[in-house]
Amino acid sequence: MEKDEERGIGDNQFPMAKKVDALENLVVKHAVRFIDRLTRLVGNAQYELSRAINGKNAVVRAVGVRDAESQLQKVIKQTADWQVVIDHMKQGKDVHIQENCKSEKLNIVGGEHYDFGQYLINANSPKWCKENTEGKQFMQEVAELKRPHD
């Protein structure tokens, strides 16, 4: 008898576990794509800064500085909403209300990396809470993560 045949009526635990695994996998893919884009922009900025420092003449150096600044502005633009939400989570503020960062929250859950954004928002306390204790605790756990070489 196969494992699926042994399950009784209403036993949906196994399919639910599959759905959770698939969702977590999708979130990780969105996070990796987001990090890939950011590291590529930072790498481009580093290349341009190297050109600005080691350029043979003033024109090459000036163009390198300008291009590096342009790449860094792209990083800042793509991470601005994320940083606002993360800062509010660190402070224990409710990210669901307009006075804090509701528009930034909506931008990250409606943007290109929406699954990753929704994962971050799901780490927060429920709407209209006095203090975002769950989000604050999540950010503390993130800050306490040890790197393998530490």
Question: Could you describe the 3D structure shown?
Answer:
This protein has 150 residues and is an all-alpha fold. It has one domain. The protein contains six helices and no strands. The longest helix has 42 residues. 14% of the residues are buried.
In short:
The chain is mainly α and 150 residues long.
**Class inferred from helices and paired strands:** mainly alpha
Kindly report the average pLDDT value. 83
Number of domains: 1
Element pattern in H and E: HHHHHH
Number of strands: 0
Looking at the structure, what is the overall shape? elongated
Number of helices: 6
Residue share in helix: over 70%
**Regions with pLDDT < 50 over 5+ consecutive residues?**
none
Sketch the major β-sheet. none
Provide the β-strand percentage band.
under 5%
Rg (C-alpha, Å): 22 Å
Distance between the termini: 49 Å
Features:
150 residues, mainly alpha, 73% helix, elongated
Show the helix and strand layout.
Elements: H1 3-6, H2 13-54, H3 58-91, H4 102-110, H5 114-122, H6 133-144
Helix pairs in contact: 2-3, 2-5, 3-4, 3-6, 4-5
